[in-house]
Fold this protein.
Amino acid sequence: MTDTSAIVILIAAILTNNILLTNFLGMCSFVACSGQIATAVGLGTAVTFVLTMTTMLNFAIYHLVLVPAGLVHLQFIVFIAVIAAFVQFVEMFVERFSPRLYFALGIFLPLITVNCAILGASLFMVIRKYSFTQSVGFGFGAGVGWALAIILMAGLRQKMMYSNIPEPFRQVPIAMIVTCVLAMAFMGFAGMVSIQ
Amino acid sequence: MADKQPPTCLSCGAGGLCGGRGLLTLKDGAWTNNPLAVQILGICSALAVTNRLENSLVMGAALIFVCVGSNLFVSLLRKHTPHRIRMIAEVAIIATFVILFDQLLKAFYWDMSKQLGPYVGLIITNCIVMGRAEAFALQNPPLLSVIDGAANGFGYAVVLAIIGFFRELFGTGQIFGHVVLSSEWYTPNQLMILAPGAFFALGIVIAVFNAIKGPEPEEKK
Amino acid sequence: MKKGSCYTLGYAGVLGSVCALLLTAASSFTAPYRDANADAEVKRNILDVLGVRYSPDVSSRQLLEVFEAKVKQEESAELTLYRYIPPEDSDEVKSVAVAFEGPGLWGPIKGFLALEPDMKTIRGLTFYEQEETPGLGGEIASVWFREQFKGRKITGDAGKTGIVIKPGGKASAINEVDAITGATMTCDKVEAILNDVIKKITGSRSTDG
């Protein structure tokens, strides 16, 4: 348990404990979709939405169903089932009510189900014993943090398209090294979180 | 990929059990299409647990266990699984093996369980396991699927071990907790065991892998 | 079409049930081992902070046996005390440990505080659970931070109860230790948690007389 406010947890999840740059979650889609800024913005938005909602859902299910029933050992399966079902539901909903939005974001939704950041956020919420407001702050902050990282990365990679990179380093290796520098930069935020 | 079938069996003594594709599948999974270095899958855990060599090896073992188990059962059930729920069925099978491993780890290797933390559970979303189940086990007989699972798991474990080896060595001067680079002349580079070091090590390893393999006629994304 | 849906549902049901059953079976099978491990970890911390010597590669079961043999657990209304009685002397109390627990910055902080038999001087400190920022708040678990507490007293010069974790390297009084640079909040929280348990110790001491 912790009595750190939800706002502080939110800011921390974006900057100091960025779910991608510190906890390495959500790397696969990060590497695959950070080529273009537009794609990154789309995916980042979708991930933020799903992260916030599923963290809340999983909190409710964990505390209202799993714990009282003594089924805590099934949390992995239940969480991922909830995430998959939620994404499926959102996909159907968006397709029905906003074809334009579906055209823009729909392609990302199946990708999000296997995004480790989504499941990871729920697992962290359980491990750190967050309350409901803390979980919401954490889920939203993690999503924004992930989106921030991927958008920064997309901007950098678009610039790098015109650089003369040695053959073995092209595409992924140089992206990793750039992410290394990005992670170092974010480490500089470490001491900034303070409560009055 | 499936139409690269050789006309004769690359004899391994099993007498054509795998339809002549056993050795090819093995080489493909471990080297040609190495899940980490070539397909760039499963990076999350590769970065998170490679701060110590011991952790990398256990995670590699975990992935081999899960990949083989899930490939086996997905393949066994492939003719009975309705198409619409195949992804959910895959996830259920994968999750079962992951949780089994997690429970065994907590029971018999407690310290390691604490070190790996949530990253054992995150094997469920590891793109390698899901990818192999979907792309291979669903269309291939059980024995071949097991070989594929083992090959991919092994390829992943080897790359993980290499990254873990260098990160622990340069980050702490130790291997398996034993001092190798004496602190008298080597100041451990703590950045190597933190997040930036992980990204850096992975980038270098993939670059070296690319350099060794040489340029390949690959379709650009 | 209807038959297809029935089959799909049936298949899903059977698969789900088999998986859940398998996992519940595995969970029950490993439960005693897991519980022993978790218990041993807590008890290992108590033994460490009390200064009990035991073989480093002892198993969880053996550790629990060592604990049962050497440490006496005393429960009072507010506090659970763990007393260590060394075998050489006859029943002389060598050290006492209490558990502390409270909210840290990012998660719960749990550990044990060991005191000399006078219940005033600190013998040692361990943390067995904390989620603080590695390299900053996480340093509370490091050797140098915990070593500071050895020999310090839980009450200050003017009779003020409680330890003070002082930033700026200015720790001087007998109940003060140095804070970790850049980890002010974690140190504040640790100070609060420790003082909470110290209040219970001094409170129960005054009622014992």
Chain C touches chain A through 18 residues (CB under 8 Å). Strands of chain C lie at 71-75, 80-84, 95-103, 108-115, 122-129, 164-166, 176-178. The helical segments of chain C are 2-50, 60-70, 143-147, 184-208. Chain C has four helices and seven strands.
